[in-house]
């Protein structure tokens, strides 16, 4: 004999049947609300939907006056319903009218009902509506009933999200879920992109919410949990995992959560109430999200990400859906939305379809931002919470210069941006016209404009910008996107291709700058407290001469008898640079011995990006054929403020007195020693900062390719010498230097420069 089912499971079964019936939207919803009321022995059951104007509209009721449906509304925070929506938490009351928040709506005839239970209708932690049951008598709703109502609310949330109730929405209004949203982040690049959202880590879409066989769903959950725990254990025991690293810490947190009895109990309870295993994961995650999102404790909010990841992992095991978006077909104008990602992950996407990336984290000098820039993509970071609010396929506008992201923009806003894009296309066409003009200020100072690059793919852009060459080729990017260490042959092929594509323009190849946030997955790194100041870059290279020699060999060979420029990163003391030069010399001798043609000219330069080197420029400059300032690192170390953490780094203006004095000192010393100097950090690509650099005598600027046009336009309209004098005065002894940026902005305005 089949066991009779009752309570929430019976209700969910009835709901499933109702959902399959051929009914009009309002009739179906009314039937659902009646079923809930009957099942919970309630005198009233009401369902409110949150609209895009912030009002909660009564969509259906059993027990209140039917004429109040689609008429009665409450604002967020108003009345008990508004309170539940605002707090995203259930509310149980014995005597609702005596609650201070109770708001009486005469048209509903609500007054005789005392016992009250209301729950938020949640999806991805966002409130979509409120579901309420009420009884005439004093009655205390129990934990089980709250749980059952929350389970039912999960189904209603899904129905809202899948447009089931769209026919019930009044013209000119919409549900809150589709409300336009604006995110104020930090722009990493210029440019504007209009497109469709592609979630980097897409939420698994749960299609089947109501269980047919609860025992089977419990078994599926257990099997999936076991598989997930095994895979986490497996990753943890993997030989490459080093204790104390961030990745390992995250996995250990996952393991702790995955074995957390409270979490598993709640999942099992949701299944016992009639949900499928997938729906149970979603339901429990919803509550967790809603609770954690309201927390102001940054630690808790960070853990929320871990919990989200874990829930997504479990859903993937349950649905067998193991893909991230990089393997899927992208829409024509894809805008990638992610919490964060590494440059290698970004490069897995089809770049021809990718217009922009939007991250919840990241800083402007993070390497993913650098790669995005070099690929001509628009990028914005610090768009808080966008991952949980955006849906695949949503319209999105990314405004790089202001760092603003508009999700589901209104048609008017879209039109404004279409016009802006047209205008910027015009501007691009204008920059294209400038490309063959020599880059000389109005008062005759020649400014050399160069690209920062790192991928062969971005070299053809040289022809469009008219830049004179590549001032910084970040060779580590190729290593970062490879799955294993590129062999010498592969390196030679890559550098040859870069030289070929640059069509005779010089390229400065920087030796591998690994470490910090430039993680190379297949190179093991010991755990470090401060990786940016750790065993990285030149320190690592000198310690592992095999890697260094292979790269130098590849570079010297790839020159094929032509000129070669090699740049040594992260020089902290002069002896390190001398040592690097010695290795280059050894490889050069080896090349000659083996009968190959050596480069026609070989120049070796040092990067100035560690403050200590500023105090022995008189040692390093005579050793160097050229030098290059890495402002990203130099300014990070000068300020003791992480370049990737905008919260701290944006507090210190890079062209305010202390930094500009440091930069001027380097420029003056390089001039004194007659050593060519280039600025290759991100500063050089920003107009007002570039003006500051020219004002202190820097004439070689290397930047991301899209910055060349605007900087060149500025150079062409600039009278440089007067501002050089003004800045020199402002940097003089005894000056507070507060107004350097303002000084430059005023000058730009006087000169009519586009900044
Ligand atoms: C810098 O530090 O400014 C620089 C150019 O190098 P990277 O950004 O690659 O560290
Ligand atoms: Mg650097």
TrEMBL record:
GAF domain mapped to chain residues: 24-170
Annotated Pfam families: GAF, PEP-utilisers_N, PEP-utilizers, PEP-utilizers_C
Compartment annotation: Cytoplasm
Catalytic reaction equation(s): L-histidyl-[protein] + phosphoenolpyruvate = N(pros)-phospho-L-histidyl-[protein] + pyruvate
GO-annotated cellular components: cytoplasm
GO molecular function, one term: metal ion binding
GO BP: phosphoenolpyruvate-dependent sugar phosphotransferase system
InterPro entries: GAF, GAF-like_dom_sf, PEP-util_enz_mobile_dom, PEP-utilizing_PTS_enzyme, PEP_util_C, Phosphohistidine_dom_sf, PTS_EI-like, PTS_EIN
EC numbers on record: 2.7.3.9
Keywords: Cytoplasm, Kinase, Magnesium, Metal-binding, Phosphotransferase system, Sugar transport, Transferase, Transport
Presence of keyword Kinase: yes
Protein name: phosphoenolpyruvate--protein phosphotransferase
Annotated organism of origin: Devosia nanyangense
Lineage: Bacteria, Pseudomonadati, Pseudomonadota, Alphaproteobacteria, Hyphomicrobiales
